[in-house]
Design goal:
about 575 residues; alpha/beta; DNA polymerase, domain 1; Beta Polymerase, domain 2; Beta Polymerase, domain 3; seven-stranded parallel beta sheet; 17 strands; about 40% helix
């Protein structure tokens, strides 16, 4: 069991990022600064406490974290702060770091302002801008002073367009890709970027294409009816903004290096950097246009991504795995998992109907849609607080009546129960014993000992799966502070499943958490949590999340037949 006093991953990452900021202000070598920034990202994205891994001497096995950074994480555990950070805090005034939040103020400029003008606080910075002293430094002018006056005292805003839920952006992106494929000038068209990797949120929507007439395809793209603005246009690339606010980037590339460019623009940045660094060690140089043998100067292009990875000595790496999280090493050894596919789900085990007040379709409509999808089984798990005063029994009669009409689709009488603030459930055990499938979820009091409540819930013999474990709502609500390792340990002990909730604003479990749980042996359920017929399709996003978590069909509970699944379930 992990000690509760260990610093959270976010706290460790924050110190590493601050150290990188201070090193940058001091003018340290760029590679050192970048190393700490990469390590901070890796710490944030790791399931389970990195502090414990560092204490056990295992953190340095994570990509981007070597022995030096592992030692610094141990320092955080032992003393509360990295020693190098403490030293630099004494040398660099604390508010000087905040100068970096202002547009136009990079580390070198910040260092000049601090050391040459003696400015050490935001108030002094604002005064220096107002009195036009900043422009006395080489390279600084009136515009920078204007930025300072506008920004000081104002909360920092994210730069660039806001990140959008994958579930909202991907359908629009795929629709554009399909429209472009139908144009007579188009040859090959694919989505790229973070959307192709199925990241939870995306920014720009990237498209890579080949065409027999690039200009014709570009012209067609910029004149589509949904385009509200053409932000940029050239002979082989264009950027447009849709009426919905989505920003699409189309790049038409030579067919002989389509694979190189698609691989490059799919990313991720960390994956590509690691790929290039490994290639250098092997005497190769990788760019978006080809792979060069440094000694001979020969450039080899690839019409397909498979050829790119093969040339570099790797098995093909699915886009969802390209995050520099061990996939390159596994591909080199031929040990990549065979990832679960959307069509392998045999049933949906978390759905709602009109029996829940927030359900949009009748039970008959939801079940008909499930049958149309070809499912073998389907659980109706309406919210327990809408099934009081005999309504659970009434619903059971409707399910039984409907089950006869939709055979061989097996209907499961399920329920989603609430985990209350005191850790108890809002449905009596004798009622739960009569349900085929029980989902237990926290919906309220998110700050009230969530880990302990989940652990207690998993002890209940009638609870089969924990729904949306961390309770997060992307872009709206932070996840609960859940001790994942304790939850995984208890799940294994009690035979409780964990859910990947496919709602686009949840996608909960996170990919790194689902990977940790899967590697530990916990069975994962991919569910739609659909409240209307159209939302049954959300499972595709959940499967994508499972693929990002390196999960195979065997590790997903609802790829099994109902008979097989019953054997995996705990007995109530």
């Amino acid at each position: 069991m992990v000690a509760t006093t260990l610093p959270r991953n976010a706290d460790v990452a924050e110190q590493l990022e601050l150290l990188a900021d201070l090193l940058e202000i001091e003018g340290e070598a760029a590679f050192r600064v970048l190393a700490y920034r990469r390590a901070a990202t890796r710490v944030r994205d790791t399931g389970g406490p990195v502090a414990q891994l560092a204490l056990d001497g295992e953190a340095k096995k994570l990509p981007g974290i070597g022995a030096t950074i592992e030692e610094k994480i141990v320092q955080i555990v032992n003393t509360g702060e990295i020693e190098a950070l403490s030293r630099r805090r004494k040398k660099i005034p604390p508010e000087v770091v905040d100068f970096l939040q202002i547009p136009g103020l990079g580390p070198k400029t910040v260092r000049k302002i601090w050391q040459e003008l003696g400015v050490t606080t935001l108030a002094e910075l604002k005064d220096a801008a107002r009195s036009q002293r900043l422009r006395t430094l080489p390279g600084l002018g009136a515009r920078l002073e204007e930025n300072v006056l506008k920004s000081v005292g104002r909360k920092k805003k994210a730069t660039g367009p806001p990140r959008t839920l994958l579930g909202r952006a991907l359908p629009a992106l795929l629709a554009v890709v399909e429209v472009l494929r139908e144009h007579p000038a188009a040859d090959r068209v694919s989505e790229a970027g973070s959307a192709r990797r199925r990241k939870e949120t995306v920014r720009d929507l990237d498209i890579i294409a080949t065409a027999n007439d690039p200009k014709a395809l570009i012209d067609y793209f910029t004149k589509l009816t949904w385009v509200s603005e053409v932000a940029a246009k050239g002979p082989t690339k264009a950027t447009v903004v849709s009426h919905e606010g989505f920003r699409f980037d189309l790049r038409v590339v030579p067919p002989e290096c389509y694979g190189n460019l698609l691989q490059h623009f799919t990313g991720s940045k960390d994956h590509n950097v690691a790929l290039r660094e490994d290639a250098v060690r092997r005497g190769l140089s990788v760019s978006e246009y080809g792979v060069t043998d440094v000694e001979s100067g020969e450039v080899i292009t690839a019409a397909d991504e498979e050829q790119v990875y093969e040339r570099l000595g790797y098995a093909y790496i699915p886009p969802e795995l390209r995050e520099n999280a061990g996939e390159l090493e596994a591909a080199r050894r031929g040990e990549l998992p065979v990832l679960v596919e959307p069509g392998q789900l045999r049933g949906d085990l978390h759905t709602h109907s009109h029996w829940s007040a927030d359900g949009k379709n009748t039970l008959t409509e939801m079940v008909a849609a499930a049958k149309e999808r070809g499912y073998a089984y389907y659980a109706i798990t309406d919210h327990s607080h809408y099934l009081r005063e005999g309504r659970m029994e009434e619903q059971a009669k409707e399910i039984d009546k409907l089950a006869k009409k939709v055979a061989p689709l097996k209907l499961l009488k399920g329920v989603e129960v609430n985990v209350k603030a005191d850790g108890t459930l809002d449905v009596a055990d004798e009622l739960l014993a009569g349900r085929d499938w029980v989902v237990a979820s926290i919906h309220t009091a998110f700050d009230r000992s969530p880990t302990e409540r989940i652990l207690a819930t998993m002890e209940n013999p009638h609870v089969h799966v924990i729904g949306h474990l961390t309770g997060r709502k992307l872009n709206r609500r932070e996840p609960m502070e859940i001790d994942l390792e304790r939850v995984v340990e208890k799940a294994l002990e009690t035979g409780t499943f964990l859910e990947i909730n496919s709602q686009p604003d949840r996608l909960d479990l996170r990919d790194v958490d689902a990977r940790l749980a899967g590697e530990a042996g916990v069975k994962i359920v991919v569910s739609s949590d659909a409240h209307q017929v159209a939302a049954l399709d959300y499972v595709d996003f959940g499967v994508a999340q499972a693929r990002r978590a390196w999960l195979t069909a065997e590790q997903i509970a609802n790829t099994h037949t109902w008979a097989q699944l019953k054997k995996l379930m705990k007995k109530g």
